[in-house]
Design goal:
6 strands, 2 domains, about 220 residues, 6 helices, alpha+beta, about 20% strand, Heat Shock Protein 90, single chain
Length: about 220
Amino acid sequence: MQRFATDFDAPPDAAVWARWFARIEAQNAAIARQLHGELGGLLTVAGMHLQRRSSAAVRMALQQAVQRAAALNREVVGQLYPQLLEHLGLVATLQIALQARCDAAGFRLDLQLPESVADLTHTSVLALYRGAMQAIDNVVMHASADAVQLGLQCAGGEWRLHVEDNGTGCEPAAAAAAGGSLCALAAWLKGLGGGLRLESAPHQGCRIELWLPMQAI
């Protein structure tokens, strides 16, 4: 069966969407810094005090509770804002986050990434990261696949990222008309001068491709 492709249309206020997403991400980053710095510090201090007070059994129970709280704090911080982007860059962060996501879902992952990216603003790097993770999440939730390929390359003055799976596929036009997370992502990308395309057919797998200009808006 032939696969069909649909470009997700941008709303007339795509630039407004892009600014709105940028504000949301800035707020997420601020919350993540506060959780990481203040709550993380308090949990560390609490753990230190636990070693000096109470019985051994109480110390163990409370220490386990503190460790669970610290793990939850790290998870929430990571969901709010991928701090690894600031320390390791887009490519390494994608490798770590995507492999962890696919391992948890039981997928085989084929990554085709460059050594580094250039000529992208911080907002565009974040958009590519969010787009990759959203595409993988769609595979996990809807595709009934067991293998996924993700590639990122620069061509024709654009950075292009694709995610392709071997799952059940869909009707691209129907998916675009239904709205949802991919439509919101498409609006963000359009506001940055890029776009999103979905190529699929029932039982033929699915390919999501998104792109941004090297010098994004």
